[in-house]
Task: inverse folding
């Protein structure tokens, strides 16, 4: 089976390519390196001792996509390529709409031309906005609070409309909760090009003494210790979720939506304490005011993914904290 992976050299894409190669899929990857580096190719090959095809370029480039589909008989697509910084999306909304929406439209056009009907799409828990009822189920009402989130929601709508228009299509929307960690070899890691916004990459910079302390955004939420609660999932578990999605598409048509999370929330201070314990390192922190737009708690209902995909995360918070630091320290 030949799988086209867009954005495959990024954080989640690279870990998924490792899983795909380990499961004997042939991988064809396209990435424009706007948030990744070419050295990831060698890292993936080192871990798996397997090869894959790489095309440097933009998913918005229809000629390049056409060339890729001509040169390779693609069976399914996993579409990771996209911009993902929430704050940047508020500042430059058009950049986000142009990149994240045009890429999907172009990809779907070329898929249709070559009669390729299966696609897995990277969505996000961000499409749930603020939810009162936890754990969050896939059929909850959807709303977004920033342009990045809106691109995810509109992408879901585009894919749904395409599925209605073309009943042969099989689409799996994966709504990721909070991916952290890295490959257990220590070779692959999350490598943000700019100052990290997310919790774990920031903690790692503090552990490595690049930043003096962690800013903890609020300790007055209605949670176990007042700090924000999220559903953190190991990136290697997340990668397995994509293998399950590919298997699911082999005998299901239409569109289906799945949460990928662990189903349990941890607070910021629980993460800090676990990170300190398993890595034997101190993470100084200061409590500050709430980050605008943040919610108190967010965690997934994992039942649907368990029942229909046969997916269940296996890694513990200790594994996640250990593998996050190990990968970033080698
Ligand atoms: P990432 O930035 O590490 O990876 C994305 C990759 O896509 C990068 O290698 C980048 O160079 C490439 N890319 C972006 N636009 C492109 C384009 N037009 N053409 C070709 N390549 C392009 O991000 P990630 O964390 O691996 O996320 C992958 C996907 O999952 C994204 O769509 C993201 O929005 C989504 N997602 C991520 C998270 C998270 O916390 N990391 C959570 C929910 C959803
Ligand atoms: C962020 C994104 C969301 C995306 C999700 C997963 C924002 C506003 N939202 O959400 O769109 O789907 O990541 O990638 O960026 N925290 C600190 N100090 C820090 C960083 C974070 O205290 O330096 C706290 C936050 O207040 C929150 C928790 O840690 O309570 C997790 O934050 P983060 O990693 O940014 O993830 P989300 O808020 O879930």
Result:
């Amino acid at each position: 089976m030949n799988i086209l992976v867009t954005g495959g050299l990024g954080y989640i894409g690279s870990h998924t390519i490792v899983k795909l190669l380990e499961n004997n899929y042939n991988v064809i990857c396209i990435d424009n390196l706007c948030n990744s580096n070419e050295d990831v190719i060698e890292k993936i090959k080192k871990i798996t001792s397997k090869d894959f095809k790489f095309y440097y370029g933009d998913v918005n480039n229809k000629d390049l996509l056409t060339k890729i589909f001509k040169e390779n008989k693609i069976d399914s697509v996993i579409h990771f390529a996209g911009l993902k910084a929430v704050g940047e999306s508020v500042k430059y909304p058009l950049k986000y709409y142009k990149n994240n929406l045009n890429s999907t439209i172009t990809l779907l056009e070329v898929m249709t031309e070559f009669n390729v009907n299966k696609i897995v799409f990277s969505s996000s828990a961000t499409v749930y906005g603020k939810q009162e009822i936890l754990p969050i189920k896939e059929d909850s009402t959807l709303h977004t609070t920033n342009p990045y989130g809106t691109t995810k929601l509109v992408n879901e709508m585009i894919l749904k409309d395409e599925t209605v228009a073309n009943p042969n299509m099989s689409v799996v929307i994966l709504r990721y909760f909070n991916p952290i960690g890295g490959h257990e070899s220590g070779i692959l890691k999350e490598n943000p090009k700019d100052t990290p916004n997310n919790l774990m990459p920031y903690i790692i910079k503090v552990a490595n003494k690049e930043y003096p302390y962690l800013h903890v955004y609020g300790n007055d939420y209605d949670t176990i210790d007042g700090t924000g609660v999220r559903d953190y999932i190991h990136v290697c578990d997340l990668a397995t979720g994509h293998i399950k999605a590919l298997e699911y598409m082999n005998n299901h048509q239409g569109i289906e939506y799945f949460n990928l999370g662990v189903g349990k929330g941890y607070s910021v201070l629980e993460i800090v304490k676990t990170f300190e314990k398993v890595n034997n390192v101190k993470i100084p922190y200061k409590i500050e005011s709430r980050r605008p737009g943040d919610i108190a708690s967010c965690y997934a209902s994992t039942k649907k993914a368990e029942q229909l995909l046969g997916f269940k995360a296996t890694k513990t918070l200790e594994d996640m904290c250990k593998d996050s630091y190990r990968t970033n320290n080698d």
Remarks:
- The chain has a mean pLDDT of 96.
- The radius of gyration is 19 Å.
- The first strand starts at residue 2 and ends at 6.
- Residues 6-7, 9-13, 30-36, 58-60, 80-84, 99, 103, 122, 124, 176, 179 surround nicotinamide-adenine-dinucleotide (ligand 1) (CB under 6 Å).
